[in-house]
């Protein structure tokens, strides 16, 4: 039962309490930040899902520990606020990063509902940590590398059409995708639907890595392919990483290339390819592309044809054509490629 | 000039070298993990972009330090491999997480090109860290919370149409989006194009946060809106966070709600709404949605109509209709909402 969220009318305690939203990373002591560790040590009260509490057990002597099990994050946030209003320093822990499917959002929702503002004596600090996608990626190679997305397959709070639309959009646009909450005892069909949507755009042999309990005792890493993904051993503690159209698996490592082959001939001593320059946009980068499109249009190519060729909306092509290209070439310093 | 990438034919050193790809997080000592710090301390040689080297200066006494400036990541990776082949322990540092627009991908590309395999005496370890999107998010509130994407606006290695297609897809599918490399002295129009694409789908007043140098001396946080984004003060050290259609800014904090309002009436003591159950999928979750769609289809609604109503591909709707709904209701345990 969710406690009621009412404005604070009790007497303020002598010392103001504090809520620290701690991202503990994958859960091993090695991979916690100094500030995360410090925050838990500093706390009077530590609140969290029972599995995460276990991961930091060595830091909890003498503290009030509130273990939450199968209840909503809202309860934990309300309990944290009540304790902080009593003057306690509260560490509300999340695995990974508190801001990614963690306690940060729910806590602020509860705080706002309760009339809290940043001027309140109770202060709030969010301590960032490496999310599951970062930790899992580090164990399988370099699958992320470039543009990626995180999507939760949990439909407990999100309508399925919204999730499906997201899966289809990112599969079409060729992102590397991390699926959180991919499957549970109850939710077994969502991963099948995700596979169905991805197969509309990606090759069946697209690399997929499934990582469970990264950096923990029962760590397990499975490599498979998109067409086998739905049958793989996936559970509540798993993160699924789906490669993009360039991702490869070699020597047991999943690597998404950065795109150097677009610019450099890696077989020939790393020379830049014809028309390309180190430290400059690709010839097919924005300015080069705009010039090409303008030339095509000037030659009489219809906007609809351009839209199909580049797989971009016609109204977008029309709008960019209307805007003149004027770029400063202020310095000749090569740009850091990131 | 990129050194040549040839297989190793030199005599193997007595002790095998090691390459540690270290994600140092936002750059303050507080926010480094224990393992990241340890790896740098353990290293004989530390290689990195000059700005990141400065961030860990206190750990570098007695070490060989190789500062790279405006050159490609490939050079750093090649230098790391050469040093490791001489038996050195090499820390190759990235800000944030090495796997996210960092050194992990480029290093594996170089290693594979040089004929390295995991059986090689030179071992490779990736040490995960909080990426810029996690650190920046922690400073502005809870903007991520749920499904999000990271997109780099750097077209040095990626064609513009690919980037544009990604921006449009994630704007349509209502993700929270983190833009990396949003702007530089040379690349000033990409952010304008990103704004143009987002405005096709998002309200002009969609919250945007721009964070520079998170957790560092010159930290700066600006809140603005989508229609003002292109004019804002954005530089090479900035990360831009664009909210989704539910993101709000209240009391100077940017928060994307988790979706509890879909299930609970937060104004009324947190009661579940009619038809919803704690610990269970939403009535519009996958199974409920499939039942609804099947009922509509049985009543004679055309697949094309359903496709338009739910904004999903017609072939997807057709395929799911063909597959019977069979879900195990194995236990009655409420599911953790994540």
UniProtKB/TrEMBL annotation, chains A, B:
Pfam families recorded: TP_methylase
CDD domains per the UniProt record, alphabetical: Precorrin_3B_C17_MT
Source domain of life: Bacteria
MF GO annotations: precorrin-3B C17-methyltransferase activity
Coiled coil regions in record: none
Keyword Iron: no
Tetrapyrrole methylase domain mapped to chain residues: 18-229
Entry EC number(s): 2.1.1.131
Keywords: Cobalamin biosynthesis, Methyltransferase, S-adenosyl-L-methionine, Transferase
Pathway where it operates: Cofactor biosynthesis; adenosylcobalamin biosynthesis
GO biological process, one term: methylation
Protein name: Precorrin-3B C(17)-methyltransferase
Annotated source species: Giesbergeria sinuosa
Lineage per the UniProt record: Bacteria, Pseudomonadati, Pseudomonadota, Betaproteobacteria, Burkholderiales
Gene: cobJ
């Amino acid at each position: 039962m969710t406690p009621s969220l009412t404005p604070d009318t009790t007497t303020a305690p002598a010392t103001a309490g504090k809520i620290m939203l701690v991202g503990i990373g994958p859960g091993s002591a090695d991979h916690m930040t100094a500030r995360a560790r410090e925050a838990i040590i500093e706390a009077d009260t530590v609140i969290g899902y029972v599995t995460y509490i276990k991961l930091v057990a060595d830091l909890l002597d003498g503290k009030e520990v509130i273990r939450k099990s199968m209840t909503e994050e809202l309860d934990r946030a309300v309990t944290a606020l009540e304790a902080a209003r009593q003057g306690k320093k509260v560490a509300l822990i999340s695995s990974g990063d508190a801001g990614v499917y963690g306690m940060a959002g729910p806590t602020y929702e509860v705080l706002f509902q309760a009339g809290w503002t940043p001027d309140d004596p109770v202060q709030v600090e969010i301590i960032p940590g490496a999310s599951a996608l970062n930790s899992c990626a580090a164990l399988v190679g370099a699958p992320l590398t470039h543009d990626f997305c995180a999507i939760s397959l949990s439909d407990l709070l999100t309508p399925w059409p919204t999730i499906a639309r997201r899966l289809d959009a990112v599969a079409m646009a060729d992102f590397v995708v991390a699926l959180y909450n991919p499957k549970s005892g109850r939710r077994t069909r969502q991963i099948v639907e995700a596979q169905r949507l991805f197969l509309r755009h990606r090759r069946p042999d697209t690399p997929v890595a499934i990582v469970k309990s990264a950096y923990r005792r029962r760590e397990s890493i499975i490599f498979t392919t998109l067409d086998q993904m739905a049958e793989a051993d996936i559970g509540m503690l798993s993160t699924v990483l789906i490669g993009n159209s360039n991702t490869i698996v070699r020597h047991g490592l999943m690597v998404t290339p950065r795109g150097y082959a677009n610019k450099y001939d890696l077989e020939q001593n790393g020379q830049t390819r014809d028309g390309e320059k180190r430290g400059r946009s690709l010839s097919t980068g924005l300015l080069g592309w705009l010039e090409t499109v303008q030339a095509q249009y000037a030659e009489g190519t219809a906007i609809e044809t351009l839209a199909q060729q580049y797989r971009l909306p016609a109204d977008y092509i029309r709008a960019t054509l209307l805007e003149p290209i004027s770029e400063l070439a202020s310095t000749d310093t090569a740009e850091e490629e990131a």
